[in-house]
Specification:
Number of helices: 7
Number of domains: 2
Shape: elongated
Distance between the termini: 57 Å
Order of helices and strands: HHHHHHH
Strand content: under 5%
Pfam families: HTH_3
GO molecular function: DNA binding; DNA-binding transcription factor activity
Largest sheet: none
Keywords: DNA-binding
Helix content: over 70%
CATH topology of the largest domain: 434 Repressor (Amino-terminal Domain)
Radius of gyration: 20 Å
Protein name: XRE family transcriptional regulator
CATH architecture of the largest domain: Orthogonal Bundle
CATH superfamily of the largest domain: lambda repressor-like DNA-binding domains
CATH class of the largest domain: Mainly Alpha
Amino acid sequence: MKKDTFGGRVQERREELHYTQEALAEVLGLSYNFIVALEGDRKKPSIQTFTKLISVLDVSADWLLGIEPSEHRKEREERFKYIDEKIGDLSITAQDRILTVIETMINYETRMETRRLEN
């Protein structure tokens, strides 16, 4: 399997999710033959099918297209993953409080940045 191709990434993720080609075809409303051709890089999806693939396979468009994230983006994703892991087990009430604090901090930083730019 070529994981460096669009079809290879579709196949890789399908297998990670334990979907058969038939099951993926059914969920997407496509034919089995289309999935086989897609994974073999003999067919390309329409925009509608592409967006369904992203949703069903639970991947980003960038990943499916083989676009490598920049270093800055990788660091950002790692930070978000860390935050998600830390607050994921908290109650909804606690998560809401944390979100309120974050929103307050973002508003403050935005105002401060605006003032700096105006001076």
